[in-house]
Amino acid sequence: MPDVIDQVALARLYGEPLFALPNDLYIPPDALKVFLEAFEGPLDLLLYLIRKQNFNILDIPMAGLTRQYLSYVDEIRQTNLELAAEYLLMAAMLIEIKSRMLLPPKKTADGEEAEDPRAELVRRLLEYEQTKLQAAALSALPQAGRDFWKAQVYIEQSLKPRFPDVNVIDLREAWADILKRAKLVQHHKISREELSVREHMSLVLRQLQGRQFVEFEKLFDVSRGTPVMIVTFIAMLELAKETLIDITQAEAFAPIYVRLAYTPA
Hints:
By secondary structure, this protein is mainly alpha-helical. The protein has helices at residues 42-52, 62-77, 81-102, 119-140, 168-185, 197-208, 226-241, and strands at residues 11-13, 16-18, 214-215, 245-249, 256-260. Strands 3-5-4 form a three-stranded antiparallel beta sheet. Strands 1-2 form a two-stranded antiparallel sheet. Helix 1 crosses helix 4 (119-140), helix 2 runs antiparallel to helix 3 (81-102) and helix 6 crosses helix 7 (226-241). It is elongated. 9% of the residues are buried.
């Protein structure tokens, strides 16, 4: 155990703290390699060197830029020859531009001054920088699968259509509308008529026989007066209670329909 109790251990070997390096410890020279910068190609390296030295991209000092570029290429040639081949092509282009700048400028056939040898390189660097900035902006946008996930909800759809249940309020309003229409055509005749709920239940069932749907209003004979309609309405309620008929509507506030209840064979 060390003399200093609160000393921080450098590492742990088989679970035991190691406070000092062994004297016979050997670390190979190539055991650890650190790359400070990672570039996507020669243009990326050139743009990095220009921005790092605060060079004017429209007036590039070719001597300093070429010297820094070649020093980087010499480093990667020692470890990755295939990667260096791509950078060597750009190095040859830089040396050519530097050589052309040392020669006296030649005028064109029209008498105008020749184009700056750096113009093509500057154009490629500016286009690459714009593309890189646009790619970074696109990458910053939220992406499905990386920044968020799409919510998926599975809703089981029944093969048999399900109609919404008829609200009691809708049924009452439909009945009130029928009564209002009956008062417009009623006759002032005083008579006594024996009305049977069972008889009107049979009448309603006969009206529905062989028909898929019948409108709720069609089942009432407004010409026979309010008492007959009341008995008919009670008969329909009894039939619905005994599950002999179905009262339904396609959607909210839609017309109400009546049909015979479905009985499996």
